[in-house]
């Protein structure tokens, strides 16, 4: 009820007072009529009735003034508290003094519902902030009260406390979108400093005044450079407005690349001011184009068969296999390259060709020869292959030293390959896989980065895909033993190398990307173009070296969050809906969650009838952190 409109309770008080006064009037009139008095007495009674009516009117007016004054005092005292979360804080403080516990244990699925109920008035209060022009009003006081250091510093507002929020500045790219506009308010409520990038000037007015907004396109490097200054983390939730290939590539791929590069450049600039290297940036291990001693450091150290006991082809392999590592291929029709090329020919399908470099030769500048692999998360290579499969090799020292490999595929074009150390497996895994057996390899100890002495690249003919008619047996009538010789197309190889870098290690994510798996879109050209552009952006982010979290929500709904169980999955299998508020809440929780770093996952509502998904476990406790157990079972770097 407004100040000018009395509430139902106020009206009942006034009417009761007036009715009581009117009941007294007939009694006065009855007593007056029973007296046999002259006409002068009648005149006196009329005067008395008029006085009584005036008294009734005055009593009603006084009652109204009393109720209005009480209402004004109450409104003045609770106008801020009733529409913000500070009233909740006050009640919790009073309960704590009395030794009561008014904060029952919540499960993660109740968090959104309860938070929404407690903050309905708050969001109504900040609605006025979207107006273009307004005079100072109570809305200003409500806003200042909610975002004061006392409430959102993490000391008192325990219900919404986020560790280190006051020290974290988040840039929201696409802040005026369906997810972005909810995300901005959730971040503010938890005490973050928020900056935003929006597409149009009119979108700036849709944001609270506490948000520092920038207007520009996501592909505008200068605008992003300005916006990202002072930022610790980025949440990218921009999306293309159409299915035009140019706009999809601009927003979903190029925009992600520019935003990631801007954050890296800013981190490097901070490190340079401290006369050091940013711990969030990649470290150069070896530049094949710039390092002078490349052909001394990298040597051809292995041309053998996978099974040394098989001597049928060992002698022939030693004579016929040709392994090169130089700036020019051995083939007469090949073009010379400005980068060193690992190329050659392996004689049999069990042949192996490998080059490697000692770890003491890795590193550049002041870090030359001092690289510690355990301080990094993996390696990043830029190369151009021939469409075949190769492997990165880590070798321990000594005769009994083990070898660990991590395979990757090439595309025939220049590409960046990202291989975390967690993907390296002992060589015995590869042998068991190629032989089709079930070797007992589970007991093999994982890679110990402290024991690694050499880093290399390997080509194995048997790892290449072969057509059914590749061998001569069965097609040309040749002897069976000729199948040992593989098709020439699988025995030749050529790989150009530009650099090898080390990926930084960290605990938290630096960049949250709201992507898409195509859920809800009909099969067709538009869906294929959208998914292709989204995957290009995801690949760019993974190869950037930043700690990332990629969220692929289902079909978005405009409804409150926290009402339904969420399903977290990998494999692009989801098809259900999810609210924009729930997606925003996942993004907020991922900012400081260690389980979210370097993970890509799909998320949607749990299917109401059947379905092949597990329900998210109920997690008791005041932390209400449903994201950690949900992501703990998912794989990293996928």
Descriptive notes:
- By secondary structure, the chain is α/β, with parallel strands linked by helices.
- About 35% of the residues lie in helices and about 20% in strands.
- The chain has 17 helices and 22 strands.
- The protein is elongated.
- Anisotropy-based shape: elongated
Helical segment tally?
17
Strand content: 15-25%
Q: What is the number of strand segments? A: 22
- Cα separation of the termini: 55 Å
Q: Strands across the major sheet, in which order? A: 3-2-1-4-17-18-22-20
Helix content: 25-40%
Note the main sheet: 8 strands, mixed
- How much is the radius of gyration in Å? 36 Å
Low-confidence segments, given as residue ranges, are 1-37, 76-86, 100-109, 123-158, 329-333, 436-441, 467-487, 611-623
* Structural class based on helices, strands and sheet pairing: alpha/beta
Overall pLDDT score: 74
Helix and strand topology:
Blueprint: H1 8-34, H2 39-78, H3 86-97, H4 108-126, H5 138-146, H6 149-152, E1 169-173, H7 180-189, E2 193-198, H8 201-204, E3 212-215, H9 221-227, E4 233-236, H10 245-273, E5 283-287, H11 294-297, E6 298-305, H12 314-320, E7 322-326, E8 341-345, E9 351-358, E10 376-384, E11 389-396, E12 403-409, E13 414-420, E14 425-426, H13 427-435, E15 452-460, H14 488-491, E16 492-504, E17 511-514, H15 525-542, E18 548-553, E19 555-557, E20 566-569, E21 577-579, H16 580-590, E22 599-605, H17 627-632
Parallel strand pairs: 1-2, 1-4, 2-3, 4-17, 17-18, 18-22, 19-21
Antiparallel strand pairs: 5-16, 6-9, 7-8, 8-16, 9-15, 10-13, 10-16, 11-12, 11-15, 12-14, 20-22
Helix pairs in contact: 1-2, 7-16, 10-15
């Amino acid at each position: 009820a407004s100040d000018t409109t009395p509430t139902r309770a106020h009206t009942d008080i006034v009417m009761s007072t007036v009715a009581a006064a009117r009941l007294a009037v007939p009694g006065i009139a009855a007593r007056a009529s029973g007296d046999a008095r002259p006409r002068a007495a009648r005149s006196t009674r009329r005067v008395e009735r008029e006085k009584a009516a005036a008294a009734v009117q005055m009593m009603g007016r006084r009652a109204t003034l009393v109720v209005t004054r009480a209402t004004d005092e109450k409104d003045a005292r609770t106008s801020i508290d009733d529409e913000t979360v500070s009233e909740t804080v006050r009640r919790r403080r009073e309960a704590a003094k009395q030794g009561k516990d008014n904060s029952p244990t919540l499960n993660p699925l109740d968090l959104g519902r309860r938070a929404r109920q407690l903050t309905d008035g708050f969001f109504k209060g900040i609605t006025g902030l979207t107006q273009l022009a307004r005079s100072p009003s109570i809305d200003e006081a409500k806003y200042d009260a909610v975002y004061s250091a006392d409430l959102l510093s993490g000391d008192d507002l325990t219900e919404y406390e986020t560790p280190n929020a006051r020290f974290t500045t988040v840039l929201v790219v696409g802040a005026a979108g369906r997810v972005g506009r909810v995300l901005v308010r959730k971040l503010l409520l938890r005490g973050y400093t928020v900056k935003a990038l929006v597409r149009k000037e009119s979108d700036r007015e849709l944001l609270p005044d506490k948000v520092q907004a920038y207007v520009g396109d996501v592909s505008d490097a200068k605008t992003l450079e300005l916006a990202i200054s002072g930022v610790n983390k980025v949440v990218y939730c921009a999306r293309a407005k159409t299915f035009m290939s140019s706009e999809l590539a601009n927003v979903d791929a190029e925009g992600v690349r520019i935003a990631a590069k801007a954050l890296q450049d800013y981190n490097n600039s901070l490190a340079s001011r401290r006369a050091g290297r940013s711990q969030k940036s990649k470290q150069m291990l070896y530049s094949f184009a710039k390092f002078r001693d490349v052909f001394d450091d990298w040597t051809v150290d292995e041309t053998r068969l996978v099974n040394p006991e098989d001597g049928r082809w060992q002698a022939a392999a030693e004579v016929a296999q040709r392994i090169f590592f130089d700036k020019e291929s051995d083939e007469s029709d090949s073009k010379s390259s400005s980068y060193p090329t690992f190329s050659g020919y392996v004689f049999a399908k069990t042949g192996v060709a490998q080059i490697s470099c000692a770890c003491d030769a890795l590193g550049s500048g002041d870090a030359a020869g001092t690289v510690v692999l355990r301080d990094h998360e993996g390696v990043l290579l830029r190369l151009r292959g021939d469409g075949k499969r190769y492997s990165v090799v880590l070798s321990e020292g000594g005769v009994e030293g083990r070898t660990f490999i991590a395979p990757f595929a090439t595309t025939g074009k220049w590409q960046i390959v990202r291989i975390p150390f967690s993907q390296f497996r002992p060589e015995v895994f590869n042998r068991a896989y190629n032989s089709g057996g079930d070797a007992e390899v589970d007991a093999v100890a994982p890679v110990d980065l402290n024991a690694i002495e050499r880093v290399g690249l390997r080509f194995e003919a048997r790892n290449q895909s072969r057509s059914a008619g590749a061998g001569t047996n069965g097609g040309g009538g040749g002897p069976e033993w000729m199948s040992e010789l593989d098709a020439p197309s699988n025995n030749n190889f050529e790989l150009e190398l530009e650099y090898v870098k080390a990926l930084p290690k960290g605990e938290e994510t630096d960049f949250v990307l709201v992507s898409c798996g195509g859920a809800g879109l009909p099969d067709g050209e538009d869906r294929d173009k959208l998914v292709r552009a989204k995957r290009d952006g995801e690949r760019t982010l993974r190869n950037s070296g930043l700690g990332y979290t990629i969220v692929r929500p289902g079909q978005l709904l405009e409804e409150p969050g926290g009402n339904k169980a969420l399903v977290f999955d990998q494999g692009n299998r989801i098809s259900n809906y999810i609210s924009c508020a729930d997606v925003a809440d996942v993004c907020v929780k991922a900012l400081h969650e260690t389980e979210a770093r370097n993970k890509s996952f799909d998320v949607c509502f749990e299917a109401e009838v059947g379905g092949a998904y597990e329900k998210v476990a109920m997690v008791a406790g005041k932390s209400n952190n449903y994201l950690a157990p949900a992501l703990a079972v998912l794989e990293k770097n996928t």
